[in-house]
Amino acid sequence: MALLSDESLTELLPRAVAWAFKQERDILQQGSILNEFRSQMARKAGVKEPKRIRFRLVSEIRFPEEEDLRLAARALGLNGCAEALTLGYGICFAKNTGMTRR
Questions:
Q1: What's the DSSP call for residue 4?
Q2: pLDDT, tens digit, for every residue of 7-19?
Q3: 0.85 cut: is pTM over it?
Q4: Cα-Cα-Cα-Cα dihedral of 50, 56, 60, 64, to 10°?
Q5: Which of 8, 12, 37, 64 could form a disulfide with 4 if both were Cys (CB 3.0 to 4.6 A apart)?
Q6: Contact residues for 16 (Cβ-Cβ < 8 A; gap 6+)
Q7: Nearest alpha-carbon partner for 42 in 51, 19, 79, 27
Q8: Percent with pLDDT over 90 in the chain
């Protein structure tokens, strides 16, 4: 796995954080609240306020469109084939995975 230089991280990190906050905001605005089963699971996992969580089903988990951010994500082990992505209180699930059954 290729390592990112300090210079690259310094340049990419603010944009990556901005992308993550935008994704979370979109999920929180368009997502659904957790049902009772999922709320109980969240509590068992240590979530103190499950009512704040929103989840959204999507056809696929999308990573940043900017090529340098996508390449950096891959360098850090995010291959773009994720079944779910958690960003703050937003959770994005890819459809047709076992994670969407309940």
A1: P
A2: 888 889 999 999 9
A3: no
A4: -80
A5: 8
A6: 64, 69, 72, 73
A7: 51
A8: 50
Which of helix, strand or coil describes residue 34?
coil
What sign does the CA torsion over 37, 38, 41, 42 have?
Answer: negative
Residue in 69, 68, 40 with CA at minimum distance from that of residue 53: 40
Beta bridge mates, 92: 56, 85
Torsion angle in degrees (nearest 10) through CA of 41, 32, 77, 47 = -30
Helix (H) or strand (E) holding 80: none
Rounded distance, CA 53 to CA 29, Å?
Answer: 11
- Return the structure tokens found at 6: 């300090």
CA distance 73 to 10: 14
CA distance 102 to 4: 39
